[in-house]
Amino acid sequence: MLTTSATGDTIRPETMRRGLNYSGPIGFTLIELLVVIAIIAILASMLLPALSTSKAKAKQTQCSNNLKQVGLAVLMYAGDQREHVQIASLLDTKFSWGALVYSNQNVSAPLVFRCPAYPPHTVYTNYYTYWFCAYGVWSDPPDTVTSANLQQDIVLSAIQRPVDYLHLADTTSRGRQGWGAVQFYTFRTNAQMEVHARHSGSAEGWFIDGHVEGARRARLEQLGIQALFGPDTIPGYYPPP
């Protein structure tokens, strides 16, 4: 028997029975749930690499900003020292360029002397060990730019091409044979894999002319540097605390 609604529409009995038996919202079937889960998984697989890339780019930007701030402090220190910047001390085993600059210039915090992308970048809190994990300073520059009897200073005015003089850079732990498995505070051009191209194939570096550059392989080779591309996997002689 057919029933007519108030609007004049015809309602079939089976439709009325379904309405009377309705007890709650209709749930998803198993197939529908699997489809939804698959769609979420596909979206996640598309978004996660983008998020990872964004995070790495943010760390590279922070690294660049750190080097700009530290580089400015180096130039101010040089201005106070008649264009001289000390990079080493053969008579003081506790000397580090970072501690020298930090103690003589108004730098915001010691943390800016480290790359945020190199773990464990906040491990060492002891004053002595902390500065051995800072950005690396070029420790074997040509004799033409050094001064003092032990050649422990560089003279900025003696550098012919400041735009090509890489003073500070991302480094590996290999300058100290992997000691501590943390980045080391010096790098040499007569050694391999002491500069670290950790930022998507580039190493952040500060040049004496004041600019910061993400140096890629061709640029590093032009500067006479054989860098490490990829993770710094050398095991530490002492495990990080």
List the helices and strands and how they pair.
Elements: E1 3-4, E2 10-11, H1 13-21, H2 30-80, E3 84-86, H3 97-104, H4 127-130, E4 136-138, E5 146-147, E6 153-155, E7 166-169, E8 186-187, E9 192-197, E10 203-207, E11 212-215, H5 217-222, E12 226-229
Molecular structure report:
With 241 residues, the protein is an alpha+beta fold. The protein has one domain. The chain is built from five helices and twelve strands. Strand 1 and strand 2 (10-11) form a beta hairpin. The protein starts with a strand and ends in a 12-residue tail after the last strand. Residues 15-20 have low confidence and may be disordered.
> Strand pairing plus helix content: what structural class?
alpha+beta
SSE sequence, one letter per element: EEHHEHHEEEEEEEEHE
Shape: elongated
Arithmetic mean of pLDDT: 82
Number of helices: 5
Q: Can you tell me the residue ranges where pLDDT is under 50 for at least 5 consecutive residues? A: 15-20
Percentage of residues in strands = 15-25%
Short descriptors:
5 helices, 3-stranded antiparallel β-sheet, alpha+beta, 5-stranded mixed β-sheet, 241 residues
What's the quick description here?
With 241 residues, this protein is an alpha+beta fold. The protein has helices at 13-21, 30-80, 97-104, 127-130, 217-222; strands at 3-4, 10-11, 84-86, 136-138, 146-147, 153-155, 166-169, 186-187, 192-197, 203-207, 212-215, 226-229. Helix content is 32%, strand content 17%.
